[in-house]
Amino acid sequence: MNKIANEYRDADGYWIELKAGWHAIGEYALHGIIAGTKREARQRAKEAEQCDCSDCQRLMKEISCKL
Ligand SMILES: [Zn+2]
Question: Which residues have a beta carbon within 5 Å of ligand 1, which is an ion?
Fold first, then answer.
């Protein structure tokens, strides 16, 4: 399952924004991952856990309304 909404590199490192409904492992309601390398960031994204915070619930509702 693809959990990645967006990814990019900047001066701080490699960023991954998770799709609605996922958070970084062990970091409830944290939807962005930063790591030194793309490989490390991707690995953390793979381990993302399901998120049901209010932001995700709202986003998922918006998505399902559009379908
Ligand atoms: Zn969330």
Answer: 29, 51, 53, 56
Distance 55 CA to ligand 1 centre (A): 5
Structural domain spans, the chain: 4-66
DSSP E strands in 1-67: the ranges are 4-10, 13-18, 22-23, 32-35, 49-50
Q: How far is the CA of 38 from the centre of ligand 1 (A)?
A: 22
Q: Give the tens place of pLDDT for each residue, 1-43.
A: 689 999 999 999 999 999 999 999 999 999 999 999 999 999 9
Determine the Cα–Cα distance for residues 38 and 56; give it in Å rounded to an integer: 25
